[in-house]
Amino acid sequence: MIPIVLFFFAASTRVDLVDEVYRIPAGQWRYLELGLKQKAAFVAADFEVRSGSRHLRLKLMRREDLERMRTERSYGVLAATEAAATGRLRYPVSMAGDYVVVIDNQEDQPAEAHVQVSLDFGPQPAPAATHLSPKRQAAVIGISFAVFFGIVSYSARRLLRGIKR
Q1: What residues does 100 pair with on adjacent strands?
Q2: Which CATH architecture has domain 13-120?
Q3: Would the CA dihedral through 158, 160, 161, 165 be positive or negative?
Q4: Which residues of the chain are under the pLDDT cut of 70?
Q5: Are 56 and 24 spatial neighbours (Cβ–Cβ below 8 Å)?
Q6: What does residue 98 show for φ and ψ, rounded to 5 degrees?
Q7: I need a labelling partner for 47 at 20 to 30 A (CA). Which of 53, 54, 94, 165 fits?
């Protein structure tokens, strides 16, 4: 019985890092360390404002970029959400290293937000399927027909000239 239970625990590749409520003062930010020093992972982070400012952002960045942000120098961001009351960040980190998730409140009132962060060390999920808008679909179909009939017309003319000779 014990080996079966151990098998199911060993098969799990997802690790929940954070599931807490954070208080972020006005015009400030907080960060969470991600332990990706040895293996790459898929980062999933969600937030929902409980009270206060309705314009928070999540940012995924390297630790060295956090240090640049701290000293108010230019810094890079791997992924970020829009400033809103809720947000979802999904990013496949392909290289091991020091990463952080920053909860940023640039509004003039403090905020309280429920934040969930998890890492998945299993195979990367397939990208979500996307669709073209109806206008673009019509444009692609129209261009395809025009090119097809252009080629057919050109070929027909060349064949007719060859037959007449």
Answers
A1: 33, 61
A2: Sandwich (2.60)
A3: positive
A4: 1-12, 124-129
A5: yes
A6: -95, 115
A7: 94
